[in-house]
Write a structure and sequence with these properties.
The protein is of the alpha+beta class.
């Protein structure tokens, strides 16, 4: 069976090479041989090749393709001689530091070879465009379960992960296989697996709980399966190559290389399916061109040629990764396994007519989904630059269509509320920043289940509801990131009006501008928070020139209020989620860095209140004064984290782990690991920062840190008594828990909680 190609490979005009007759030698290396040759320095890169340009996730995808037994392309090599090595100024692959013993010059395949070297040998050198090395791992449980999309991952080589890399028992305990072990060949892999087996056998013998015994036995017994899997991979996975004869002239070889790269085009799953379906009277490329006329008004820079196919696949089989798209080929059989263990071969699409019918329906669903997203009163993603995640489009369209048309959905209006809740929780939690196809499949299945049973709330939404209090919008300072853009979508949904004319503007003419000018932030040594989304809004260039003019708000807002009816001016500012309290802060003279922080906190509370009212279930039924208490407690929690970071001189995550009581570290680490799976890009960017680490500590844990013997002396002067501080934390927590869990709150709990809010606000002012 022809497998889909999951990497960006290039179509090569190998007819050029065929004409060279005896000047080429085709062949293959099995994976074990290739690893050994990489280790011995047999491959070198000519100077005219570009630098290693892949991203960490590209390396992960390559390794996943190898383990999935996918074809990863043919390498073009040139047998080396002292003369051609010198002429082409060859050097080792990126990160190779041992002595070279060159046998081949790599003309095509450098990125793949370098990626394998980096993953299998883990050189102690930073990954390109990263501050630290990157380590690659396999989650053995996912690998054994066949969940290939989840089995492979990577992380920066922080002190913590270096520790895991160097502690084999920690690897065994967490069922983590370091890919760098494969650099030692079959012996090293075999020794690791034997150690894994022995570790879990000993755990089975020492465990007293029956569940622990069974879990340990399962792990120990899986070692034999792992041994066979790795041996088969190392011995039988073949990488093809074509080797040019060493006697060829340098000029001819360079001409071949130039010709290949000038003529090469990227081959993706769409191109592959286009080639496969042509003999079946399906002209996929032309169908996509025809569809483009209907899609032209929607996000022209964001739509991919696979989106219609992905919608088709989700509707047909709940999945949309490349290997599932292949089953859309007419006549292609798919084997499904039933719950009783039996298997059945089915054909999803019988003929070309059936394919075109499914294509047309998926296109219609995609258009309807795009209309919803772009509607300024629905989702507010009015343009490419204001679309949080293009990658969510296929599954959003499929879910929308199911909610509107599936007979299993009885409450259409309620289903739309569910779709909104799923969409916003996915965006705000950065759920579609990685593993898009597997996430799409999980969410499509979960939403169908939820439509049928309103109590079956998807796990991702329940996690969002729980984690919402930790959402720190101050840290959202990267223009164009998903959460950043989503906040702007809220402005559009709320009909944000122009600050100069007070009219609804042409939204596609709006620009992203600072409220407090960036120049003031620079003069006052404000950190990256000057670029926070909380200090930004959508304003026309004309308004920026005529109203803001790089001035402080205490000037231009004062003029705005003086020149217009105050009530109307306040309403315009509120449409940008700038509350009256926020305006009061912005008008202060002099305006200080402390005032700026107060403004950020107030605007964050306003925006989170807006998200809660729209997206958190039953929020509108909570009395307004209780919702206000909840937001005040949230603000106190954020300020306490800042106070701890400053007082304890916590500079990064490693210092945080050494600073907080040891019993808290594993809890926080588990929360971070869960979040890192959902948003690896944010974790990679901020994971080492103190602010990122501390946001995973809750109120009770903040209290434990402050009251610990190690740190109390630093906080005693501010809070006075351990007993008083503990009681105030308790009153604060009781009020919050009552609000969050929709319990009736008695007057005593409310009064004590209100007093605790006032007490904390005074102490941490």
């Amino acid at each position: 069976m022809l497998h889909p190609i999951t990497l960006h490979l290039r179509q090569r005009p190998f007819n050029i090479l065929i004409l060279m007759k005896d000047s080429q030698t085709p062949g293959t290396f099995h994976l074990g041989q290739l690893i050994t040759r990489i280790k011995k320095g047999h491959f070198v890169i000519p100077d005219f090749q570009r630098e290693f340009a892949w991203m960490p996730w590209d390396v992960r995808d390559l390794i996943q393709s190898i383990f999935t037994d996918y074809y990863i392309g043919t390498m073009l090599l040139w047998e080396s001689t002292p003369s051609n090595l010198e002429t082409l100024s060859c050097e080792g692959v990126y990160g190779f530091t041992d002595r070279l013993n060159p046998e081949y010059i790599v003309l095509d395949g450098q990125q793949r070879l370098t990626a394998m070297h980096y993953a299998f040998f883990a050189p102690d050198i930073h990954f390109p465009k990263r501050a630290k090395p990157v380590l690659y791992w396999i989650k053995l449980r996912e690998l054994l379960a066949g969940n290939m999309d989840e089995a492979f991952y990577y992380n920066s080589a922080t002190r913590y992960y270096r520790g895991v890399r160097d502690d084999v028992e920690q690897q065994y305990d967490n069922h983590l296989f370091p890919l760098s072990t494969m650099g030692g060949g079959s012996w090293a892999v075999g020794d690791w697996i034997k150690g894994y087996r022995d570790y879990w056998r000993e755990r089975a013998e020492s465990a007293t709980d029956s569940d622990e015994v069974n879990e340990a036995k399962v792990a120990a017994n899986s070692a034999e399966v792992l041994k066979e899997l790795f041996e088969d991979l190392l011995d039988n996975y073949q990488i093809s190559y074509i080797a040019l004869n060493r006697e060829l002239e340098v000029g001819k070889v360079c001409d071949i290389f130039t010709h290949i790269n000038s003529r090469g085009v990227k081959l993706d799953i769409f191109d592959l399916l286009n080639a496969i379906t042509r003999p079946k009277d399906i002209f996929l490329k032309q169908m996509n061109r025809d569809a483009a006329t209907q899609l032209a008004e929607y996000y022209p820079n964001s739509l991919k040629n696979t989106y219609i196919l992905m919608v088709m696949s989700l509707m047909a089989q709940n999945y949309c990764s490349p290997k599932y798209l292949y089953y859309l080929v007419p006549g292609q059989e798919k084997t499904i396994r039933h719950k009783d263990g039996s298997k059945e071969n089915i054909t999803l699409v019988k003929d070309a007519a059936g394919f075109r019918e499914r294509w047309d329906y998926a296109l219609k669903a995609l258009v309807q989904g795009l209309k919803k997203l772009k509607n300024p009163r629905d989702y507010g993603a009015i343009s490419d630059k204001l679309l949080p995640y293009p990658s969510i489009i296929p599954v959003f369209s499929a879910i929308q269509d199911y909610a509107l048309n599936a007979p299993e959905v009885k409450q259409r209006a309620g289903a739309q509320d569910m779709v909104k809740r799923w969409y916003w929780s996915s965006i705000i939690s950065s759920r579609y920043s990685s593993s898009v196809e597997s996430t799409s499949a999980q969410d499509f299945i979960a939403m169908k289940r939820w439509f049928a049973d309103e109590t079956a709330v998807p796990d991702s939404i329940q996690e969002f509801d729980t984690d919402f209090s930790r959402l720190n919008l101050i840290q959202q300072d990267v223009a164009g990131s998903a959460v950043y853009v989503a906040i702007f979508n809220l402005f559009i949904i709320d009909g944000a009006r122009d600050w100069h004319t007070f009219d609804l503007p042409e939204y596609d003419a709006l620009d992203d501008h600072h409220i407090v000018p960036k120049s003031w932030g620079k003069q006052n040594n404000i950190d990256r928070s000057i670029n926070s989304v909380l200090n930004r809004t959508l304003i026309t260039p004309d308004t920026n020139r005529k109203v803001l003019r790089d001035r402080l708000p205490n000037e231009y807002l004062a003029e705005l209020l003086d020149a217009n009816e105050n009530e109307r001016a306040y309403q315009v500012l509120e449409s940008h989620l700038i509350s009256r309290r926020a305006v009061e802060i912005l008008l202060r003279k002099p305006f200080t860095p402390d005032d700026y922080q107060a403004f950020l906190r107030e605007r964050q509370a306003t925006i989170k209140r807006r998200l809660r009212l729209e997206l958190i279930p039953d929020e509108t039924q909570t009395p307004l004064h209780l919702r206000q208490y909840d937001l005040q407690i949230e603000d106190i929690e954020l300020r306490l984290r800042e106070l701890l970071i400053t007082t304890l001189s916590v500079t990064d995550a490693d210092v945080a782990k050494r600073t907080v009581p040891s019993h808290l570290v594993p809890k926080v680490q588990r929360r971070i690991e869960r979040e890192a799976k959902k948003n690896p890009a944010l974790f990679e960017e901020q994971g080492d920062s103190a602010a990122y680490w501390f946001q995973f500590l809750d109120l009770q844990e903040l209290k434990d840190i402050m009251l610990s013997k190690q740190h109390w002396s630093l906080f005693e002067g501010r809070f006075g008594s351990k007993t008083v501080l503990a009681n105030e934390f308790s009153d604060l927590g009781n009020l919050r828990n009552g609000i969050r869990h929709s319990r009736s709150i008695d007057p005593v709990t409310e009064k004590k909680g209100q007093g605790a809010i006032l007490w904390f606000e005074q102490q941490i002012e």
